């Protein structure tokens, strides 16, 4: 698995910790920054990571900003992207299992470092259930793009 990572200036520390955590587990990453705390526009970074997923260069993306909301809103405007803001492990598991989310968004100002890493682990480890009822619902969501 290869994971695209991106953050804005408000979440550089969390993105770097997630990157280190994933690499320690042998997971390859595509890190799109931001690489310092100088103010930037979060859509610019969300777009880069999501384009990596769209092109098949990354399997999923993890986006972090102050709340996770701005990153997820940006991601969900992009074709083929299903992003979910998660602040707990139950939601991270459910969104992969039932919604086949391919983007996780986390807020550094909302979630502590330890919990954030647990959320990442659950998101990465959980596979889509492939049950017909879930796929039918995803198909309805994806149809809205067209």
Radius of gyration: 14 Å
Task: Please give the alpha-carbon distance between the first and last residues.
Answer: 29 Å
Approximately how much beta-strand content do the residues carry?
Answer: 15-25%
According to DSSP, the number of beta strands is 5
Q: How many helical elements? A: 6
What is the general shape?
globular
The assigned structural class equals: alpha/beta
Largest sheet, described in full? 5 strands, parallel
Output mean pLDDT: 96
List low-pLDDT spans. none
Could you estimate the helical fraction of the residues in percent? 40-55%
Order of helices and strands: EHEHEHEHEHH
Strands of the widest sheet, in order across it, are: 2-1-3-5-4
Write the layout of secondary structure elements.
Elements: E1 2-7, H1 12-24, E2 28-31, H2 42-54, E3 60-65, H3 69-75, E4 83-85, H4 89-99, E5 103-107, H5 113-125, H6 132-143
Parallel strand pairs: 1-2, 1-3, 3-5, 4-5
Helix pairs in contact: 1-5, 2-3, 4-5
């Amino acid at each position: 698995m290869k994971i695209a990572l991106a953050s804005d200036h408000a979440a550089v520390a969390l993105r770097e910790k997630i990157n280190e955590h994933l690499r320690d587990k042998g997971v390859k990453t595509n890190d799109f920054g931001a690489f310092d705390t100088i103010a930037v526009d979060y859509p610019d970074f969300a777009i880069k990571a999501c384009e990596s997923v769209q092109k098949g260069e990354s399997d999923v993306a993890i986006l972090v900003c102050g709340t996770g909301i701005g990153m997820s809103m940006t991601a969900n405007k992009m074709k083929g992207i299903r992003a979910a803001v998660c602040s707990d492990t139950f939601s991270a598991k459910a969104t992969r299992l039932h919604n086949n989310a391919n983007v996780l968004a986390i807020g550094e100002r909302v979630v502590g470092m330890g919990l954030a890493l647990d959320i990442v682990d659950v998101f990465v480890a959980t596979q889509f259930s492939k049950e017909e009822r879930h796929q039918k619902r995803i198909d309805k969501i994806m149809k809205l793009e067209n």
